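@channel sequence for tomorrow's demo:
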Amino acid sequence: MPIVWIGFAVFVVSLLFLDLFVLNKHDHVPRTREALGQTALWMAIGLGFSGFIYLAYENGWVYSDLPAHTAMINYLTGYLVELSLSMDNVFVIAVIFGYFQVPAKYQHRVLFWGILGAVFFRLAMILAGVYLLEQFDWMFYVFGLLLLYSAYKMVGKGEEVHPADNPIIKLVKKVVPVTTEYHGHDFWVRKKHVLAATPLFVALVMVETTDIIFAVDSIPAILGITTDSFLVFSSNILAVLGLRALYFVLSSMIDKFGYLKYSLALILTFVGVKLMLHEVWHPAEWVSLVVIFVTLTAGVVISLMRKTPTEHLDDPTEITAPSRVPEDHQL
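structure tokens (generated this afternoon):
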């Protein structure tokens, strides 16, 4: 494994250690100012990493024929795409936390371990995606159609999220015993000499499977920008690492961005068409970056200028800790 991959792995582990044992050492509900500060920090790290990308490709630290400036632009474009698509994931996570009535002060813990697992799943999916595109040219059309279908679903009538109908959740219920009460921030407890999962663990499994589903959209989108595995993985992971802080910023104001889904749909459509026309259309790398940035900015600005009816939760971070899980949630 090239040294740059090992170095990046150490870098990510260091960031995770900083997040869990320094920034969020104690269970608590992040205040808006704290969440905004952490979001700014993660974005600064993600954007600042583009400088390392330039140096790595300029000095040949990564085995690639890409010019340094092209690699940097591709990284920034991929980072922006993943960050924008993560905003849609925030709503689904809010629904999951609301359904399981996850106490607000434990939500960060669920997000941390959920995203940690997503790092490994996404690495496997990215390497598999890159391999398929390199070996089978027709996969460009498959990924392109997948993105177009995702764009269609995004602007169509959204499907309601029903955590209880998730097959993974049903499997958890059958395989391991699950308590009906929360036990602090523990995922597992021992009751009468039997190791049982808590509702917090079930919520974690749901968040994990949901992230994998969203990765089916986001990873092909980044592969439509570049098939360089290091650029795809680094931009994807650094965007995902900031999702926890971003959740606490957006969860209480997601209803203010009613037009953002149209911007995300346009971005997916643009990348999908670019994939399907890869043999005849080769726009400059900066074109993709500009199109995605302008489209995303337009969606945010229009949303703030015009009020739109939504069905989002009012403020999922305000959920109080229940003493027991509701009867229809018992596992």
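heads up for whoever presents: The longest strand covers residues 188-191.
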